[in-house]
Design a protein that fits this description.
Layout (H helix, E strand, L loop, with lengths): L12 E8 L3 H8 L12 E6 L10 E8 L3 E13 L3 E6 L7 E10 L2 E10 L5 H8 L4 H28 L1
Helix pairs in contact: 1-3, 2-3
Organism: Kibdelosporangium banguiense
Protein name: Membrane protein
Length: about 170
Amino acid sequence: MEWTGARYADKPTVEVRTWVNATPERVWAIVSDVSLMPDMSDELQAVQWVDGDRPAVGGKFVGRSRHESFGEWSTTSHVIEYEPGRTFAWAVADLDRPSAIWRFRLSPKDSGTQLSEWMQMGPGRSGLSYAIDAMPEKEQKIVFVRMREFEQNMATTLAHIKKLAES
């Protein structure tokens, strides 16, 4: 059977959305606090701002992660979009060729907040690249499985944000 999914070079994306019964300001306070993210993720273990940086375009933070198939690693992320109450995005590793781009978007909706989390894999190399190098014939399946993992983890993250914001 031939796999017909995306390749890493296609820069595949995934997005998860939820509605939160809280103001955008309340949701933003949670989304923009990267120190809360490890509590919402099975993979992300810790986050620390570099040199006292804070959320702003150009700010950097180091994230330490763990995955049973990939082991442990850390990456430096660069804030590339920061519009309080609306958008928070960062590029992982290299600004010119990030291994991933992550973005939260918020907008007022029905007396609450529409919240989305989006990510793009690649185009820069990541830990997944080593698995693809070792099994190039399985690239599309490897990418598909990883994107589904991201989608599931993002849904869990948004559920945590929703619970915190609504409590």
